[in-house]
């Protein structure tokens, strides 16, 4: 059980906010496979407060898309608070603040992970947002373990973390890498254990290096976090939620999805994208998803190349008809490998 404010989830595995990925179609597919709560891709505060078609699209929350979190990023406390109030009024169930993005362009504009180096501004943002959002709507925070590995960065991290809970935030997600690391090197799960001990019974979620169901189970058991947010590990692999549910309930890990099953899910994802964006735009947007889905196919390289070459709906359907033909006798589907799988394989070998 995971609780964020008044929201309760029977399964503690969340689909993270993924810039450029976690749109409505992806969230719908994640929910189908067991994600109880998903986050909208991160958006800039100014895009929420400035009138226009983009603002209307961001603030459009479909009835079937609940519970949903809206993640915001910005540099100005007043504008970020205004955007948070708009998201809550539009029907987002949770407002999440991003102090974790490590992208250079974001850092250069004093947003995301940059704010971990500016505790005064960061804390002011937390206070302004919590005050601007109705008390019934939980406010949460996503942060990395610091700007870098220096003592000053560590001091800033814990100062911001403590202020988040003191201000009334419902939960904090901590990614085990520093901003400086970006996505290079392993996430430090031992730091998550330390934070768990520091915050006591407050709600803490973990993030970083969750690519398989075994990774999810291992993070929950080794760090003591209340829940986890799966980011890159669920792009093109919504089955990770079903697999984690099985392991956490004591059941065996399901077999990898067969090629025909993969094809059915990709078709559904593509048709959702067509309804959301229209045929031409959906074909462009879905190319990056197809590339990630291809990793589970027994002929991954050829399928990846085929998705890369897609330009329109006809191309897409041709790829699906050829490479996911349900009438063909395909080899078993592949499974992504992560640190948890290697550990589990070693344990089985020793037994």
Structure, described:
With 351 residues, the protein is an alpha/beta fold. The chain has two domains: 2-248, TIM Barrel (Alpha-Beta Barrel); 259-323, Non-ribosomal Peptide Synthetase Peptidyl Carrier Protein, Chain A, CATH 1.10.1200. Helix content is 48%, strand content 13%. The protein contains 15 helices and eleven strands. It starts with a strand and ends with a helix. Residues 347-351 have low confidence and may be disordered.
Terminal CA distance reads: 31 Å
Q: Which superfamily, in CATH terms, is the homologous superfamily of the largest domain? A: Aldolase class I
Return the structural class: alpha/beta
Overall number of domains: 2
Order of helices and strands: EEEHEEHHEHEHHEHEHEHEHHHHHH
Largest sheet: 9 strands, parallel
Strand portion: 5-15%
Shape: globular
Helix content: 40-55%
Give a count of the beta strands, DSSP E runs of length 2 or more.
Answer: 11
So what's the CATH class of the largest domain? Alpha Beta
Q: Output the radius of gyration.
A: 20 Å
Let me know the average pLDDT.
93
User: Which residues form runs of ≥5 with pLDDT under 50?
Assistant: 347-351
Examine the secondary-structure arrangement and name the CATH architecture of the largest domain: Alpha-Beta Barrel
Q: If you consult CATH, what is the topology of the largest domain?
A: TIM Barrel
Determine the oligomeric state from the structure: single chain
